[in-house]
Amino acid sequence: MKNLAILMILISAITSCDKFMVNPNISDDSSQIVKSNVPSPVINAFNAKYYPTASRMEWQKEDGNTWKVKFYFGGLRWEAIFTEAGTFISERVN
Question: How distant, in Å, are the alpha carbons of 34, 44, 53, 94 from that of 63?
């Protein structure tokens, strides 16, 4: 069972990287925001909560005063939502 779980994680990692190997400069979301325009409490909360190896962060302003960040960690695509003040709201694996 343990070997099956490791195999599934490995397959997920390989298939999720395939999208960026074709053309890593293509973005599928026009609402991305440059990191320098994201409030520092949001970035600080993200950095405190998540791992230093998270990559390909995509920042989006949501409704109200919330911010969504999509990122990759461990070969999986994640997204997390924070308030503008940096309070963590939710996360999920896509």
Answer: 18, 20, 28, 20
Predicted confidence at residue 22, as pLDDT, reads: 42
Give the whole-angstrom CA distance, residue 70 versus residue 19.
15
Backbone φ and ψ for 22, nearest 5 degrees, come out as -70, -60
Indicate the DSSP class of residue 25.
Answer: T
Query: What's the pTM?
Result: 0.64
Whole-angstrom Cα distance, residue 94 to residue 76?
8
Extents of the domains making up the chain: 2-93
Average pLDDT of the chain, as a whole number: 79
